[in-house]
Amino acid sequence: MDLVGACRAFVYVSDRGSFTLGAAAARIPQPVASRRVAALEKHLGARLFDRTSRRATLTRFGRDMLPSARRLVDLAESMEHDAQRARRAPFGLAVPDVCPTRELALLAAQGRREGLRLDPRPAPPGERIHLLRSREVRAAVTAVPSGEATWVVPLGVAAAAEPAVAVAYVETLRVGRTDPPAGARRVWIQPEDDVPHIRDPLTRIRDAVGLRPGQVAVAASLASAAAEVLASADLLLCSRRQARELGLHWRPVGEIRLERGYDVSADDAGDAEPLRGALHESLGRCLGALEPMEEIR
């Protein structure tokens, strides 16, 4: 027996003194209300109403049971309200701040179709982890080595002038010992790539080919790094999509394969499942692991 449904019919009928009016208030057909009340009476072992052709009058037993039934109905309705509010609550998701706004909007739209009201929170790698640990978001896209990643984004270097080569080699930036420091070209690392599994291999290549320490530098922001590259012969470590958006010319790095790796972290494993499942492709496009369909075509 549906105890909550039966109690709801009992409460509505008792409030209105009529099975017809009570059923209408409960938004159920009158025969359904009658069956539910009859089932409740059978379950409780006594009659709740004295029925006449026009009125439904509470019995003494019915009057005694009405407060308990009303509490159960109120609790059930409160639970349904809380469930609706929980379903509508934003799902905070920390994402890389290099994700394009349009792709984030498409991800959020896809999330709504899957029953998730995603609230993307763009942030650099360290802040994304902080947002998750402080429970300001329910999940975070975290930077991981490509071998551990769900999504992988190839990196290369981009320049303002189109190179004459198909592959860029870091060693070509080497300058003589007597050359002034101001003439040394640099590779700029943006905050999204200031993580050990990207920064450290590039630094080791710098040292192996004899570049000066300052020739691989970490920028305060992507905008400041791009400004340095646009105003000079410096190079920006970035994805192909970022180079295209900035109007730069991208080439892969010859000495080493550099890649951004991304995975999803969440305190509740269930919060990560839709991001790796139904939203995998949309999130991949945000990250640059998948090109937008119109660009593929």
UniProtKB/TrEMBL annotation:
GO terms for molecular function: DNA binding; DNA-binding transcription factor activity. One of its GO terms (cellular component) is protein-DNA complex. Residues 1-59 form the HTH lysR-type domain. The keyword Transcription applies. Coiled coil: none annotated. It comes from the Bacteria. InterPro entries: LysR_HTH_N, WH-like_DNA-bd_sf, WH_DNA-bd_sf. Keywords: DNA-binding, Transcription, Transcription regulation. Gene3D superfamilies: Winged helix-like DNA-binding domain superfamily/Winged helix DNA-binding domain. The keyword Transcription applies. Belongs to the LysR transcriptional regulatory family. This is DNA-binding transcriptional LysR family regulator. It comes from Nocardiopsis aegyptia.
